Amino acid sequence: xxxxxxxxxxxxxxxxxxxxxxxxxxxxxxxxxxxxxxxxxxxxxxxxxxxxxxxxxxxxxxxxxxxxxxxxxxxxxxxxxxxxxxxxxxxxxxxxxxxxxxxxxxxxxxxxxxxxxxxxxxxxxxxxxxxxxxxxxxxxxxxxxxxxxxxxxxxxxxxxxxxxxxxxxxxxxxxxxxxxxxxxxxxxxxxxxxxxxxxxxxxxxxxxxxxxxxxxxxxxxxxxxxxxxxxxxxxxxxxxxxxxxxxxxxxxxxxxxxxxxxxxxxxxxxxxxxxxxxxxxxxxxxxxxxxxxxxxxxxxxxxxxxxxxxxxxxxxxxxxxxxxxxxxxxxxxxxxxxxxxxxxxxxxxxxxxxxxxxxxxxxxxxxxxxxxxxxxxxxxxxxxxxxxxxxxxxxxxxxxxxxxxxxxxxxxxxxxxxxxxxxxxxxxxxxxxxxxxxxxxxxxxxxxxxxxxxxxxxxxxxxxxxxxxxxxxxxxxxxxxxxxxxxxxxxxxxxxxxxxxxxxxxxxxxxxxxxxxxxxxxxxxxxxxxxxxxxxxxxxxx
Length: 542
Fold this sequence. Notes:
By secondary structure, the protein is of the alpha+beta class. The protein is built from 15 helices and 24 strands. The chain is globular. The two termini are about 25 Å apart.
């Protein structure tokens, strides 16, 4: 495509440095429908005819690796939110507000939402957007047994979805759900392009068509870039920035190099890399708050934790979290004690029950029946306290956190083996992984991760008290009651955790001085996702 070639020339001319990009490991699926193929052809034709005379208003973002741009499968990253629209969206303060819905009503007596949709909205291929697309998407979320998405537990209270006319959708719940309005931010899929296909593997996942602020143009896997152009027919404010080139980068040092060389305009960097740009007049440091934590997430599918799950919490006494925040995070974060610590419903200090105290660690280990062997490693029932934690090798910050934790635990008598992997391997029997997660919106976001058998509970954590508290909090309307329930959850979880929480990170972004409009009022999510929540307000003045 001419556009892709021109951007490649433009980008290579911006820097003399040679950088290595880590590409998405997942390839495109086979063609899975004539309409999807036609849409891809239309996009290529659009790119061929694009005005290539001026790329000064093109934003190059050094982002994350991607494997899919389907919002049902990838609700975590920036790109789906640019291309797709939901019934609702989050405002700057994290409140759900209308998006593709013009308005909505809620009947408390029947737990029924009625959404009136904006009229005249078009899919990026020119097809009319209708209520049937909404019904189709939510039926996939609630009824497609083949869908392999970790968010399906968020929609389990939906009893029925119907379109009463082309612009009206009625969604009835089986019981009240305090978090439901936020879950209606999920991007809507086009029925005419995806119906009857395998949602997990269809070609559409790499060639998406949405209704959002930006249109998908091309995914150049060899060059590591996703190209999007603004949707001039967008139903709300059309963005000022004409084009976004999303570079799929994994290696943290590469992002910093791209900024330094002029090959990227914006990137989220770890705190130490971000610090190297402070005071440089050619760059801006934009610091966000996030709800993003790091910790060792233990896999209860493995025999070691099935036998020794009672000994996870005590590990907190042997980890100097303050030192990790000062060193690895350069002070840009706080020690972690709760998975909802920075949520408005969380932060119950009564759950902050572990301090860095090696004497306390030793006494608690003795109570649990662990005895140090001749090699200085604790043993119980003839088994060493040895477990493996996998860490992706290109995530320097996570590798550093894991190695420091391993060294501190080893000094205290616990052998945590750090295993570096290119991508997480869930079938090799590792005892856990260096995890990250965020609860930046409603605290019910943790439901799918912590409730027994829930769709995002990939580590098989199970605690009946946790289940009861999170179920009750989800189905309680009163905010005061919910806060009390989540506070109790924090205390119960602290006593019997599945994750050794280490630290919360700040969201340290660096941009060229030409970029303006980023709004730091938003609390960002995992990997500081959400920075583009107001991208339609951004400007580039090169």
